[in-house]
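Input sequence (451 aa), recorded before submission:
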Amino acid sequence: MTEFIDHHQRPRKPRRKRTTSQSALPPHDKVASRTRSKGFRETMTTQGGLRETMDRVNDSFTQQSDLRSEREMRWRSTMAGYGDQDLRRAHEEPSLPLGIDRVVNRELREARDAETLALGATRAIGAGNRDREEAPDPYRTAFEVDRDRILHRCTAFRRLAGKTQVFIFPEDHLRTRLTHALEVAQVATSVARALSLNVALAEAIALAHDCGHGPFGHASEDAFSSFLPEGYDHATWGADVVLAPLNLTAETLDGVRNHSWTRPTPTTPEGCIVSFADRIAYLCHDFDDAQSAGILRREDLPHELLVLTGGYHGRLIDLFITDLIESSFHGDEIAMSAQVASLLGSFRRFNDQLIYSRPASQRQNDIVIELVQDLVSYFLEHPDDLPQDHAADDDVLPLNSVDPALSPLQRALTYVSGMTDRFVVRKAIEHLGWNPERLPRGIDLGGFRAP
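Predicted structure, token format:
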């Protein structure tokens, strides 16, 4: 399902050759010959002009330095904020009065949810149903604690920024696994809020749902599956291995574990929402990215979807979200109407044929599978090369660490599946001697050079 963008195929302007006469110019004329501004070159043809120009440059630097110093001083003056000895503000002028008569703590919010959420909504109670008991938060519900742990403490979530959605090492404006998770969260919370379900739970599941993905998208799942009799599923691996140190609630982990449509039905309606939100988000934004990459045009969209939406990204998302909300309300379960579900299915087949399964993408998948399999095999044979910096005083593993309590195979798979696209390529070059020429053109190694 992965697709590489070859940045090296873009035409380049030919470099202007330096004439032999330039080498004979005096020093100040050499500077002039390298300057693009004609007027500037003419100014610098004399020593007086050069001195005048340098004076102007120095004055400009001085002014910029003064401005920078003033800006830094102004910034440093805000270190402790503004105000008196009792209260400090972020801004010099006071804000408007709040006019509140009490702080809404967790118990009050849970009581409010009991009255306002739908009968079938999942309710947060205390610290929540967790594998390891812990004290409840005074202000946040259990599902809000889950969401915040995923955002602030989960390195696997942050590494999604360096993992392929569809296009490997894309341009800055194309999606990664991280931006995909954020878009899924937006769709899921929109639906949950409209149906009076638990928004925090839907958001937590959506943000974490792809934390079990390896580098290079779904291609790495095929690579990892060769090592496991039951196969590798990013959904179950994410819930049962990657997210386990966070001690999330059972409801959040269930939603992550079962968000794929081939898995059992999630035990909460919020989990069912995320299953739809995931498909809605990736179909719409993968088609959008394919247009940006020059693979497809908006007019290529299946005819009925094109007629209804014009092929515009926002209209496509709105069509599916609106139907999911209204159909779920009238049907009393999380579901789409048969008509719009059929459109979603045709959209899925369209993307599969023209984006995910196109020959160029399949060829790149073969390279990824070989590379990832070779790297897992290497770490099985050389377990001492796995990082050993497990933090016993924290319930979250530090960056690139592996829990020593896992089996050798689990340790190798956990390490490699947690790698970003760039990092797995670097490790393949470092440990396996992979020839960078075998990699698809356009892969960015971030300045890394083979030893």
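Checked by second reader. The two ends are 31 Å apart (CA to CA).
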